Amino acid sequence: MSNHSADPNSETLAFNLAQPGDYFALLKPRVMSLVIFTALVGMVAAPGPVANWPLALISLFAISVGAGASGALNMWWDSDIDAVMSRTKGRPIPSGKVQRADAFGFGLFLSVLAVIVLALAANYLAAGLLAFTIFFYAVIYSMFLKRSTPQNIVIGGAAGALPPVVGWAAVTGTAPLEAWLLFAIIFFWTPPHFWALSLFKSEDYAAAGIPMMPNVKGEARTKLEILVYTVIVAVIAVTPVFFAFAGWLYGTVAVVLGAIFLAGSIRLYVAKDEAATMRASKSLFGFSIFYLFLIYAALLAEHLLGLHG
């Protein structure tokens, strides 16, 4: 059971030091930027031109605020384990810059605001999907999955994969199969991305008591799982071409990047010693970010240039 008790001294410190930038850091701005980008691609990839760009941009803002709210609630809940991990100990709560209670109130307020704004600017389906995304990340993933199963990233990845569906729904009022293919790309991309990270950060996760795949199933099983999920995402990433909302440019990018992603996963799988494994896992983690960005950028470019379908 996690310990979420507060130190009175740190509370005083937080009261004295909290700055606007500290609250912005609670929103996980790097994650939020990815959410904005993928939600925008979902909007643009949806059939027909965007009818009202001012309302679409307000909707995009609401989606980004909802993502930030999820981040704040996640940091509120995870402040105890964040304090013992080198990657996260500098975050606002463990560093003593923001009080836990303030982070919770901030995240809850932004969650409600984001859902209401999206309902007013777009429609109830998009707002409902956003509300579910926030709930899934803050409650299902953060409070239950993350500390209880090595499949935490697999199931929890649904939260990070939903923004393009929310974006699609915001401009069309629907969430068809095509939107869920965009979801599937991110969903199946998430395990190899995070498990590559967990291979060279396994000591951090072990110290925090988080059952990541390398700590529970071992390095060899993690490498195999990464390879399997890479094959799945490489195949799924090509499917938009067959559903007529992506064309030759996207298809070419998806095939080439999928081959590179797969080659990196194979290199990691066959790595024999620790040094080779660390090099391969860091390389794969870095490329995975590049991969997802370019896949979505290619789809965005096609639709903006009218080359799709």
UniProtKB/TrEMBL annotation:
Question: Entry's HAMAP family?
Answer: CyoE_CtaB (MF_00154)
A GO molecular-function descriptor: protoheme IX farnesyltransferase activity
For this UniProt record, the keywords arranged alphabetically read as follows:
Cell membrane, Heme biosynthesis, Membrane, Transferase, Transmembrane, Transmembrane helix
Protein name, entry field: Protoheme IX farnesyltransferase
Per the UniProt record, one Pfam family is UbiA
Q: What is its main location?
A: membrane
- Report the gene name: ctaB
Give the GO biological process terms: heme O biosynthetic process
Question: What family is reported?
Answer: Belongs to the UbiA prenyltransferase family. Protoheme IX farnesyltransferase subfamily.
Indicate the transmembrane segments per the record.
31-50, 56-77, 98-118, 124-145, 152-171, 177-197, 226-246, 252-271, 283-301
Query: What is the protein's membrane topology class?
Result: Multi-pass membrane protein
Q: What InterPro entries does this protein map onto?
A: Protohaem_IX_farnesylTrfase, UbiA_prenyltransferase, UbiA_prenylTrfase_CS, UbiA_sf
Miscellaneous comment text of the record: Carbon 2 of the heme B porphyrin ring is defined according to the Fischer nomenclature.
* Highest taxon above the source species: Bacteria
